[in-house]
Every structure is written in C-alpha cells, then in structure tokens.
Amino acid sequence: MKGSIFAAIALGAADASAHYIFQQLQVGGTKYPLWQGVRQHTNYNSPVTDLSSADLRCNVGGGRGSGTQTVSVRAGDSVTFFSDVAVYHQGPTSLYMSKAPGSAADYDGSGQWFKIYDWGPTITGSGASWKLDSSYTANIPSCIPDGEYLLRIQSLGIHNPWPAGIPQFYISCAQIKVTGGGSANPSPAVSIPGAFKETDPGYTANIYNNLRSYTVPGPSVFTCGAGNTNPGNPPVTPPQTTLATTTRVPNPTTVPAPGGCSVARYGQCGGNGYTGCTTCASGSTCSRTNDWYSQCV
Ligand SMILES: [Cu+2]
C-alpha cells in the first residue's frame, strides 16, 4: 500500500495484511472454483496505483491468460465476482469489458474497454456509504456482439485522499465467451491505461471533507437502451442511524436459523436469478423492489 506515512500509521498494520483478491466467478447459477475463468495475477492482494501502467488492465502478471479457462456466458446473464476478503476501503467498484480480437486467453487488454456497471456511493447528509462486499453481481449487456471478452472488475480505494494519499486499484479479469448477443457497438470506449487521470474528480475526491456528490472515474456506463438497463446489485441501503464517514456499512448477511435459513433485514430474499434463502428473519418480510431484487424489510 502506498500513501502518506501518517495514513499508514493511522490505518495500522492490519490494513496492509488483508487486502482483497477477486478470485472467483459465478455465471448465472454456476459458481466456478477459484481462478477458474479468472486470470490469476501475481500481485497477491496489493493494489495497482500507477495510472500509466498496463497493469491497470488485469493486474500485475495478468496480461495473458493462457492457463485460464474461458467460460461461456449468455448475453444478459448475471456474472458475479467474489473476493477472498470483503472489500473494506471506501470507494467505487466498476465492471468493464473489452472484446478480444481472437481468443480471450491471448488478449492483453490493449484494445477498447467499455463499462457495464458502477457501484457508486449513496450520499446522505451524514456522509457516503459504499457497497463494501465480497460479491459484485451485474448482467452482461444483452445487445453486445458474440465473441470472447475480458471482463474486468475494479475496486478503487479512495480512503487515503489524493494528493497526500494515492487511490488504489484492486483488479481482476475474467475470460468469458458471450453467446446469444446482438449487434451493438458499445460506447463510450476507452483505453486502459488512459481512462483514469489525476484530475478526475472521482479520483481526487476527499471522502472525509463534506462529500456532496461523486462521479465514478472512467467512462459512463454502457446500456443497451431504454428498458434494458442493467439491474446489477441493488443500491446500498442508507443507514438508518447517523453515519460517520469512516463507519463501515454492515453488509446484508444471511444468518442460519434452526430448521432452515433466514435473511437478515435489508438482505436479498428474491429476484430473477436469485438462488439464495427466501425466508426473512422474524420481524421483517420479503418485499419486491423490482424483477431482479426483493429484500427483507
Ligand atoms: Cu489498504
């Protein structure tokens, strides 16, 4: 971890020892073993911080994927990245895709990238809350052309604000083969490196200083058009009590109950593609938010 000496001291040794690695992929209802479909990089759990480095694409050692299986995804299917440890640095997480000229395994990511999802903050008068989690789910756009792609997750830690600190990119790429797609030409398209600058407001933002709005770095999210937006994960549920900006928002958790399962309040209990527990903890009931998401309230 880079950052100011002050910040390093303030954050303590535990911070440096347990960063997160996006190492597992689920497609629809199929959860693959560790590093199957995901390129195993050599950066362990360290971030990439150099905005001009090709390591920003698929992390250190992730430039090729000859040893990685490419997994099939139907256009429109949900995909989930899992990390070994839940993300805990505040900041946005995004999903990008880039079409390989040939096989995804041979592709270094030097072509054009488009963004398919952003998890930005929920900002209230008392601060910002982020999706800090160990799984991030979104849908592959249904209109993109068939072919092999890199699917890239990026969690950007902005907990040590620029310029005293350096934002941290936690990255992995999966190799996917899309079928059943369409003929869209996804845009806007960007190069990596190049898509992120030291002048981006979402890069320089100070989350501890009266954050009123936030723009996730990178291009705008590509969608297939009206009525076809990406459902992805639900927005972060704003906390009910006053939240200090440094307080971590508890993740909705599923807790087992005798004789079955139980979803804690604000946890997911239903929706298209959802295969988890549908029983809400006592005191809450499962309420439909949209076709893709119901939660216990
Ligand atoms: Cu850290």
From TrEMBL:
| Sequence intervals crossing the membrane | none
Predominantly, its location class is secreted
Q: Record's superkingdom?
A: Eukaryota
Which cofactors go with this protein? Cu(2+)
GO terms assigned for molecular function: cellulose binding; hydrolase activity; metal ion binding; monooxygenase activity
Q: Which UniProt keywords apply?
A: Carbohydrate metabolism, Cellulose degradation, Copper, Disulfide bond, Hydrolase, Metal-binding, Monooxygenase, Oxidoreductase, Polysaccharide degradation, Secreted, Signal
Q: Name one GO cellular component term.
A: extracellular region
**Key word Signal present:** yes
Q: Which reaction does it catalyse?
A: [(1->4)-beta-D-glucosyl]n+m + reduced acceptor + O2 = 4-dehydro-beta-D-glucosyl-[(1->4)-beta-D-glucosyl]n-1 + [(1->4)-beta-D-glucosyl]m + acceptor + H2O
CBM1 domain sequence ranges: 261-297
Q: What Gene Ontology terms for biological process does this UniProt record contain?
A: cellulose catabolic process
Q: Which Pfam families match?
A: AA9, CBM_1
Its recorded name reads: lytic cellulose monooxygenase (C4-dehydrogenating)
Its EC number is 1.14.99.56
Which family does the record claim for this protein? Belongs to the polysaccharide monooxygenase AA9 family.
Q: Where in the cell is it found?
A: Secreted
